[in-house]
Specification:
Elements lengths: L4 H12 L9 H9 L4 E5 L1 H6 L3 E3 L6 E3 L6 E9 L6 E8 L4 E10 L2 E10 L7 E4 L2 E3 L1 H4 L12 H4 L5 E9 L5 E2 L2 E9 L9 E5 H7 L8 H7 L15 H14 L2 E6 L7 E3 L4 E3 L2 E12 L7 E9 L2 E11 L2 E10 L7 E4 L2 E4 L15 H5 L6 E8 L9 E8 L12 E5 H8 L7 H13 L12
Parallel strand pairs: 5-11, 6-12, 19-24
Antiparallel strand pairs: 1-17, 2-3, 4-5, 4-14, 6-7, 6-9, 7-8, 7-13, 10-12, 15-16, 16-17, 17-18, 19-20, 19-22, 20-21, 20-25, 23-24
Helix pairs in contact: 1-6, 6-11, 7-11
Length: 459
């Protein structure tokens, strides 16, 4: 897709601006928001289900809300014809309504700015992070919770409010969500937008700078901002777009991964007690309960379950210059929660708590290359939080490494070298790039600027 010159150039101009008179002093402003009396306390599942709201279904054991909305915790049985392991059971979050992740854009002094919110989520590290203007499921913005309406939601639910810059459905974590998708949308307005004190205008350059700090720009902002167009030219690389799409479609048609929802109380190798739902051997995550108080939210207090990872995930990307253009080595990654089984993932996505117990032959390809990369080849290395509304303190180490001279040019069958411009073009469409790949692409943009060569030496 070739984007209008005016839009791409205006986005590039916003990326060049790393300060703005329209923005607060962001450190002081965010520090003040984090000093508000927020509370997110761990509670037992027994306490969660004793209060109004959440219940375990007597027949399936699935954890659900009495309203029938929000999300459920169900079971999943997965089998794979190749790979390791060949079979597993796990709980998974099921949320059938589509969330709006929406950002309002407006031009000030000739520069595009984006309206972000200092939002409290119960699973956030540091409690408050910068979220989109609107981050709400249909259960939230139709006020099933009987709380206040989400601010600015009318810009995204009522037509004709502004010029649409981005509008696409994207997945979330395919390892933890079943068929979850969100509407990623950016709307540019020209009229006056009254700014609530929990919101602020930032340029794209300011957002890029904040990406180099942990736990500031939340996952939902990263995925929406990452969908902004990055080029006005037809994307090219060592493979044509037709070749890339054929390779991707071939993998989807040949993938033999079966995932079916099963009752939560029939999961093999998992147990539920008064405290939590956990795997017998500890495993990679558990399901826990939290009690929340937040005066700035539409509902000021509630209880809910969260998925709590037990360690750090690595999402690593190997990049190199080929034919004068920067390319990334991405993988056709099969995850049980994806709607179409496969999306493009990073070079490596791996739960690092599994590293000591995973035999070398079962570890991901290129993991050792990423972990042992010399410092001079590391272009980005920051631990970021994942979504705090469903996950408790989920953290991912996002790592971008430039390939060393001895790194193979040829890619294994599940991998492909795709140029940065081509990845940006694919990201404009639904279900091509997984959420970790989308974040890494945005982080790669933040390493550079619109007028630089991605911070990488030309070879």
């Amino acid at each position: 897709m070739v984007m209008p010159v005016d839009l791409a150039s205006r986005i590039a101009a916003s990326a060049r601006m790393t300060s703005s008179p329209m923005s607060p002093e962001i450190d002081d402003w965010l520090r003040g928001k984090r000093r508000q009396p927020f509370e997110s306390a761990d509670i037992t599942l027994e306490e969660l289900t004793r209060s109004p709201g959440w219940r375990f279904a007597p027949d399936t054991g699935n954890l659900h809300h009495e309203s029938g909305r929000f999300f459920t915790v169900e079971g999943l049985h997965v089998t794979a014809e190749r790979g390791h392991p060949a079979e597993w059971w796990q709980p998974i979050l099921v949320q059938r309504d589509i969330a709006i992740l929406g950002i309002i854009a407006k031009e000030f002094n000739g520069v595009l700015h984006f309206l972000l919110q200092a939002k409290m989520e119960p699973g956030n590290i540091d409690m408050v992070q910068l979220s989109p203007t609107v981050q709400a499921t249909s259960s939230n913005y139709t006020q099933v919770h009987r709380g206040r309406a989400a601010r600015y939601v009318e810009y995204f639910t009522q037509p004709g409010r502004g010029r649409v810059l981005v509008d696409t459905l994207q997945s979330e974590q395919g390892a933890w969500f079943h068929h979850k998708r969100n509407r990623n949308i950016v709307i540019e307005v020209t009229g006056d937008v009254p700014v609530h004190h929990d919101f602020c205008w930032l340029t794209l350059g300011q957002i890029h700078r904040l990406l180099h700090r942990p736990n500031v720009v939340n996952m939902d902002t990263r995925t929406v901002v990452g969908c902004l167009p990055g080029t006005v030219s037809e994307p090219v690389g060592v493979h044509t777009m037709t070749e890339i799409l054929s390779w991707f479609t071939g993998h989807k048609s040949r993938q033999h991964l079966s995932a079916r929802l099963v009752p939560l109380n029939r999961l093999v190798g998992w147990r539920r007690d008064d405290e939590r739902i956990a795997r017998d051997d500890g495993g990679a995550f558990s399901i826990v309960g939290v009690s929340v108080r937040a005066q700035t939210r539409e509902v000021t207090s509630w209880k809910q379950p969260l998925l709590a990872p037990h360690g750090l995930t690595l999402a690593g990307l190997v990049v190199r210059r080929m034919n004068g253009r920067l390319h990334a080595l991405v993988r056709a990654e099969a995850l049980p929660g994806y709607r179409d089984t496969i999306e493009l993932g990073p070079t490596v996505r791996f739960m690092m708590t599994d590293h000591p117990t995973t035999p070398a032959e079962h570890r991901p390809e290129f993991l050792d290359h990423l972990l042992s990369a010399p410092r001079h080849s590391v272009r980005y290395d920051v631990v970021q939080s994942e979504e705090g509304g469903r996950f408790r303190h989920a953290r991912t180490r996002y790592l971008i490494v430039e390939a060393t001279d001895d790194f193979p040019l040829s890619a294994p069958p599940d991998f492909a070298w795709i140029s940065v411009e081509q990845l940006h073009a694919l990201q404009r469409h639904s279900y091509y790039l997984g959420i970790e790949a989308r974040t890494l692409l945005l982080c790669l943009d933040s390493v550079s600027g619109p007028d630089t060569d991605f911070g990488f030496p030309v070879r």
